[in-house]
Design goal:
Elements: H1 5-17, H2 22-44, H3 54-66, H4 76-97, H5 103-106, H6 114-117, H7 123-139, H8 141-152, H9 157-164, H10 168-192
Length: 195
């Protein structure tokens, strides 16, 4: 019986957790198209003239995967959730490196509309979202994980529920509450900076 891609990835993840360093390259080979889709979704929220491309984002995330030690991989969805987190870190690091000292002059008000709420049309917005997610994670890490997996990773509610081992209804509730909290926090920060 041939392994499905999902079970093949799960088996390779377990091998990687067990110390087989070559498993990561085989995993990425299998899921590369999906990683590129995640990267494209991440970049679709970026400003139009962003200089990093989806392929470069996947490659940078791969380099960060190589550095991961001591993680007990659950399954394919867990791998993509971690991939989404790594891509978020790459984009935030990239934005910070671009010199966000001018951030107050570039900040735009976050609206209640979901599309605008999580839209990062410039580097400062990526950093503001990241900072808000870090604040959210301090008192409700699950809601921050839901946002990260859904927004950055493009995981479905079912996939997020499987990774976090919660109900799909809890994912929807967390997503809704987290969006409202993020809007409030991002708008509060904007008002505090006098923008």
């Amino acid at each position: 019986m041939a392994l499905t891609p999902s079970s093949a990835v799960t088996g390779l993840l377990r091998a990687w957790s067990g110390g087989d360093q070559g498993s990561l390259a085989r995993i990425v080979e299998i899921v590369y198209p999906e990683l590129r889709d995640i990267a494209r979704r991440c970049l679709s929220h970026e400003r139009p003239d962003h200089t990093i491309q989806a392929t470069a984002l996947v490659h940078e995330a791969y380099l960060r995967f190589v550095d991961i030690k001591q993680i007990q991989w659950q399954d394919r969805a867990h791998f993509f959730a971690v991939g989404a987190r790594l891509m978020r870190r790459v984009l935030v690091d990239y934005a910070r490196a671009r010199g966000c000292a001018k951030r107050e002059g570039l900040v735009r008000r976050a609206a209640l509309d979901e599309a605008l709420l999580l839209s990062a049309q410039n580097d400062p917005m990526v950093i503001r979202l990241d900072e808000a997610l870090e604040q959210l994670a301090q008192f409700d890490s699950r809601k921050a994980q839901v946002v990260e997996m859904r927004y950055f990773g493009g995981l479905t509610a079912d996939e997020i529920a499987a990774v976090l081992r919660i109900s799909v209804q809890s994912v929807h509730r967390d997503w809704s509450l987290a969006k409202s909290w993020l809007v409030r926090e991002m708008n509060r920060e904007e008002r505090a900076h006098g923008s």
